[in-house]
Amino acid sequence: MSAKGHCLCGEIQELTRDFNGSIIGVLHNIQEKYGYLPENILREVAKETGFSLIDVYSVATFYKAFKLEPKGKHVVCVCTGTACHVRGSDKAVEELSRMLGVDPGDTTSDGQYSLETVNCLGACALAPLVVVDDHYQAQVTPAKVRKMFQEYAANSSEANLPAGR
Amino acid sequence: MINFTLNGLDVAVEKGFTLLEAAKFYGIELPTLCYNEALSPYGACRLCLVEVGIPGRSRLVSSCTYPAGEGLYVRTHSNRVIETRKLLIEMYLATCPGSKTIQDLASKYHVTRVRFKQKHEECILCGLCIRMCREQMQAKAIGFVERGGFRRISTPFEKKSEECRLCGGCMYICPACQARCQGPQEKSAVCNACLNLSPPCLERFDEMMCYMDPCVACEQNSRGEKSER
Ligand code: FES
Ligand code: FES
To answer: Would the CB of A77 count as within 6 Å of ligand 1?
Structure first.
């Protein structure tokens, strides 16, 4: 779905339909639809909801859950919260960034994968935790990460594993 | 009317007064950095703090946001207040030593050293410019973005804002962007230069020359010539 060009009125109406005075829900809708928060959509949404653009932008930059840049098709998220950290999440981050050939926070050049880190996903008992799209992988080790990834790539045909580095 | 005790005095102020307004009303001066009469109080700088409650069970609150309440016991110049205030100023000096407002506060409240890692920020995040833009200029062109240690003031998408009319209100009100005097000890974190010098226009001139060149008062430059201006 392109976020540019044609009239956006319909889409904006759709995105703001359950607007109840709080902008966060709307931002979640946008992020769900486009994978990130496109600038032109935010501008339209600000007009529609009566929020000033700077307020929308403040909220969008405040929360780590919102992205202002396009993300990869698949998001690989490693928890680096306290519990995950002490149980070796940095190893998983290293392994993933080696496999994908990107640093945490970046997206592979083919736009397939984004590697991200978060501070605690609220499932510390499963530490260290890696989430690929909506699949949770508990108590990961570098070996587990590799295996999981190969399986994942095999299951979703378009998601080919990049060459790595 | 609201009755409470301010520095041991029984005072009465109208309902809706903040402690800062009450103190002002009774002629007690409190330092502030993020407060302006024409803007909504924000409570960011904490400099205006006062001690509320009886000794032993008191706490420090920011007077610009704390409403005067019936029967409060308020002290604006207790030891605890003064020590904390000095510490705050010291921290502001460590963050933003280039600001005249902050240097002036340091001189006024006798802060003569900085024990923290020296930084050279240009912003103390007091939010005055944002409130000025929003409340007085009705523009909403700037605001806080990001958070925590990365918090800063910016325009939407870091681009020139369409709402901005270039009124300059943000710079007018900024306590950090007026540069401190470029006197003899320009490099040091604490200025106090004016305290270390005799007044610029001396009765006996001898070898000494005022650091303002040419001097604004006598209009002589350092070679003793009368300036053109
Ligand atoms: S620290 Fe990783 S889930 Fe809490
Ligand atoms: S003036 Fe009260 S907190 Fe800044």
So the answer is: no
Name the stretches of chain B with pLDDT < 70.
183-187, 192-229
Answer yes or no: is A163 within a domain.
Answer: no
Query: Into how many domains does chain A fold?
Result: 2
CATH class name, domain B2-114+190-222:
alpha beta
In this structure, the number of other CB atoms found within 10 A of the CB of residue B17 comes to: 17
Do A88 and A140 reside in the same domain of the chain?
Answer: yes
Q: Any chain A CB within 8 A of the CB of B189? A: no
Q: Where are the domains of chain B?
A: 2-114+190-222, 128-173
Task: Tell whether the model's pLDDT for residue A145 goes beyond 70.
Answer: yes
| Residue A79 sits in the same domain as residue A150 | yes
Surface of A (85-124) touching B: CB under 8 A: none
ipTM of the complex: 0.75
**CB of B156 less than 8 A from some CB of A:** yes
- Strand-strand pairing, B49-52 and B2-6: unpaired
| pLDDT confidence of residue A148 | 81
Q: What 3-state class would DSSP assign to A136?
A: strand
Question: End-to-end CA distance of chain B, in Å?
Answer: 57
Q: What is the pLDDT of residue A161?
A: 54
Inter-chain contacts counted by CB atoms under 8 A, chains A and B: 33
Give kind and range of the element (H or E) at residue A100. helix A89-100
Domain that holds residue A34: 9-62
What 3-state class would DSSP assign to B135? helix
Q: Is residue A98 part of a domain?
A: yes
Atom of ligand 1 nearest to the CA of A121: 3
**What pLDDT is stored for residue A156 in this prediction?**
64
Is A58's Cβ below 8 Å from some Cβ in B? yes
Mean pLDDT score of chain A: 84
Question: CB–CB of B161 and A56 under 8 A?
Answer: no
And the tokens for B22? 């009450």
pLDDT at A74 over 90: no
| Identity of residue B101 | T
Q: Give the confidence band of A2 by pLDDT, cuts at 50, 70, 90.
A: very low
For residues A50 and A97, state if they share a domain.
no
